[in-house]
Amino acid sequence: MRSSADDNLKSHIEMVILAALERGPSHGYALIELIHQLTDGVLSFQEGTVYPLLHRMEQRGLIGAEWEIAPSKRKRRVYQLTKEGQQELVRKREAWDSYSLAVSSLLQRS
């Protein structure tokens, strides 16, 4: 049985992936590297975490994917944000802002 903490973490990772894809289409490994780079290494996800999430997000219509041939001649999936994904990102950002504000208020030192 999954805990609500696991679901909450996956939701936050989904938000990060959607925000990264907002910058433009990307294949999975480049997406992991982009997130790592943009967060100065604070967020570092394993392929085993990201690829199943990408698959579920594609099934839910949040992202689209197409196969392309990489320079190495290997096939890879390139992911892009869909209209539904953009709308979900707006909702997740609003929820994050509310959550972040609440936690920041709690952590304020007197």
Automatic annotation (TrEMBL):
The keyword Nuclease does not apply. Residues 17-89 form the Transcription regulator PadR N-terminal domain. It comes from the Bacteria. Keywords: Plasmid. InterPro entries: Metal_resp_DNA-bind_regulator, Tscrpt_reg_PadR_N, WH-like_DNA-bd_sf, WH_DNA-bd_sf. SUPFAM superfamilies: Winged helix' DNA-binding domain. This is Helix-turn-helix transcriptional regulator. It comes from Pantoea phytobeneficialis. The lineage of its organism: Bacteria, Pseudomonadati, Pseudomonadota, Gammaproteobacteria, Enterobacterales.
